[in-house]
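Q: What does the predicted 3D structure of Large ribosomal subunit protein bL21 look like?
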Amino acid sequence: MYAIVNIAGQQFKVAKDQQLFVHRLQGDEGASIEFDNVLLAEDGGKFTVGAPTLQGAKVSAKILSHLKGDKVIVFKKKRRKGYKKKNGHRQQFTKIEITGIAL
Protein backbone atom coordinates (compact mmCIF):
# COMPACT_ATOMS: atom_id res chain seq x y z
CA MET A 1 0.00 0.00 0.00
CA TYR A 2 1.32 3.42 -0.94
CA ALA A 3 0.05 6.92 -1.53
CA ILE A 4 1.13 10.05 -3.34
CA VAL A 5 0.79 12.99 -0.98
CA ASN A 6 1.45 16.72 -1.20
CA ILE A 7 3.76 17.80 1.66
CA ALA A 8 4.89 21.43 1.88
CA GLY A 9 4.30 22.04 -1.83
CA GLN A 10 6.07 18.91 -3.06
CA GLN A 11 4.63 15.52 -4.03
CA PHE A 12 6.05 12.35 -2.46
CA LYS A 13 5.31 8.66 -2.92
CA VAL A 14 5.06 7.32 0.62
CA ALA A 15 4.56 3.93 2.24
CA LYS A 16 4.27 2.81 5.85
CA ASP A 17 7.52 2.91 7.90
CA GLN A 18 9.29 4.96 5.20
CA GLN A 19 11.61 7.79 6.27
CA LEU A 20 12.04 10.87 4.11
CA PHE A 21 13.33 14.44 4.17
CA VAL A 22 10.86 17.25 3.47
CA HIS A 23 11.11 21.02 3.67
CA ARG A 24 11.04 22.35 7.23
CA LEU A 25 7.73 21.66 9.00
CA GLN A 26 6.31 23.24 12.13
CA GLY A 27 6.31 20.99 15.19
CA ASP A 28 8.60 19.53 17.81
CA GLU A 29 10.67 16.39 17.46
CA GLY A 30 8.62 13.34 18.35
CA ALA A 31 5.31 15.05 17.51
CA SER A 32 2.87 13.38 15.14
CA ILE A 33 1.37 15.20 12.17
CA GLU A 34 -1.22 14.38 9.52
CA PHE A 35 -1.34 15.26 5.83
CA ASP A 36 -4.73 15.31 4.13
CA ASN A 37 -3.62 16.30 0.61
CA VAL A 38 -3.60 12.71 -0.68
CA LEU A 39 -3.62 12.71 -4.49
CA LEU A 40 -3.54 8.96 -5.22
CA ALA A 41 -3.69 5.77 -3.19
CA GLU A 42 -2.93 2.14 -4.08
CA ASP A 43 -4.15 -0.74 -1.95
CA GLY A 44 -3.56 -4.28 -3.19
CA GLY A 45 -3.59 -3.38 -6.88
CA LYS A 46 -6.67 -1.14 -6.55
CA PHE A 47 -5.93 2.47 -7.44
CA THR A 48 -7.95 5.42 -6.18
CA VAL A 49 -7.33 8.79 -7.83
CA GLY A 50 -8.53 12.04 -6.30
CA ALA A 51 -10.01 15.01 -8.10
CA PRO A 52 -7.84 16.84 -7.01
CA THR A 53 -7.53 15.09 -3.60
CA LEU A 54 -9.11 12.05 -1.97
CA GLN A 55 -11.85 12.94 0.51
CA GLY A 56 -11.24 11.55 4.00
CA ALA A 57 -7.81 10.11 3.19
CA LYS A 58 -4.99 10.94 5.59
CA VAL A 59 -1.30 10.12 5.90
CA SER A 60 0.05 10.25 9.44
CA ALA A 61 3.72 10.79 10.20
CA LYS A 62 6.07 11.36 13.11
CA ILE A 63 8.75 14.07 13.16
CA LEU A 64 12.13 12.49 13.84
CA SER A 65 14.47 15.50 13.62
CA HIS A 66 15.09 18.94 12.17
CA LEU A 67 18.37 19.42 10.30
CA LYS A 68 20.14 21.43 7.62
CA GLY A 69 21.20 20.22 4.19
CA ASP A 70 24.60 20.63 2.58
CA LYS A 71 25.87 24.11 1.83
CA VAL A 72 25.35 25.32 -1.73
CA ILE A 73 27.70 28.04 -2.99
CA VAL A 74 26.21 30.57 -5.40
CA PHE A 75 28.89 32.51 -7.32
CA LYS A 76 28.01 35.18 -9.87
CA LYS A 77 30.55 36.94 -12.07
CA LYS A 78 30.51 39.23 -15.08
CA ARG A 79 33.81 39.16 -16.89
CA ARG A 80 35.80 42.34 -17.44
CA LYS A 81 33.38 44.34 -15.28
CA GLY A 82 34.80 43.68 -11.80
CA TYR A 83 31.48 42.22 -10.64
CA LYS A 84 31.69 39.22 -8.31
CA LYS A 85 29.16 37.99 -5.77
CA LYS A 86 29.58 34.95 -3.55
CA ASN A 87 26.65 33.68 -1.54
CA GLY A 88 25.88 30.47 0.35
CA HIS A 89 22.68 28.68 1.29
CA ARG A 90 21.76 25.76 3.55
CA GLN A 91 18.24 24.42 3.17
CA GLN A 92 16.43 23.42 6.35
CA PHE A 93 14.83 19.97 6.31
CA THR A 94 12.65 17.84 8.55
CA LYS A 95 13.13 14.09 8.72
CA ILE A 96 9.80 12.30 9.08
CA GLU A 97 8.67 8.69 9.31
CA ILE A 98 5.33 7.62 7.83
CA THR A 99 3.32 5.80 10.53
CA GLY A 100 0.13 5.06 8.63
CA ILE A 101 -2.08 5.61 5.60
CA ALA A 102 -5.83 5.81 6.18
CA LEU A 103 -8.27 5.80 3.27
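A (community wiki): The C-alpha coordinates above were generated from the sequence. The radius of gyration is 19 Å. The chain has a mean pLDDT of 96.
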